[in-house]
Amino acid sequence: MKKAILGVFLMLGMFQLAAQEDVKQQDTNKKWQVRARFISVIPSESASIEAIGGDVSISTSYVPELDFTYFFTKNWAAELILATTNHDVEAINTAAGNIDLGDVWLLPPTLTVQYHFPIGDFKPYIGTGLNYTIFYGADEGPVADDVSYDNSIGFAFQAGLDYALNDTWFLNLDLKKILLQTDATVNANTALGATVGADVDINPLVIGFGVGMKF
């Protein structure tokens, strides 16, 4: 009887080890993650404006965002972040007063390399990479005849946390700082009799919260 009981326990132990190995194998096979986040893009703006001086004010934007992550190893991964945002732009405290420069759309795909620190169900991570921002759909507002923005490339820094709900689904909190600068040209010949250039630092902080899936 003792031998039979011992045999049962040995079999249960073997099944337990096999199940754990299957889970590990499943986790190994799940190289991809996709997340859907809701993000706030908060500019930390400043500008050097030719001729008329002053500064710039750029509005905060709230939008959905999608990203894809591929794991090369348990710890190392690469993430591609996709979203588009719309911002109101105003030149403030210039020699001509405050000038409404309308709004502009930004498409800032960002690729980061991440290092993950698995701690049970928690997986904090840090990352760094590059951002390329495309400016499009600019509405020049009531004063300018035309406003144009140069596309820009810059560094991005990231920190975040995944929390596993089960083997497939997880919650995510993510912070990114993007070093973003553009050269803007404001054609305001009708209202101001001048075309004005500006060196604009946007440098947004991006805060996101969402849900993800491993596959």
UniProtKB/TrEMBL annotation:
InterPro entries, sorted: OMP/PagP_B-barrel (IPR011250), OMPW (IPR005618)
Keyword hit for Cell wall biogenesis/degradation: no
Entry annotated with the keyword Signal: yes
Annotated keywords: Signal
Entry superkingdom: Bacteria
SUPFAM superfamilies: OMPA-like (SSF56925)
Signal sequence residues: 1-19
Record protein name field: OmpW family protein
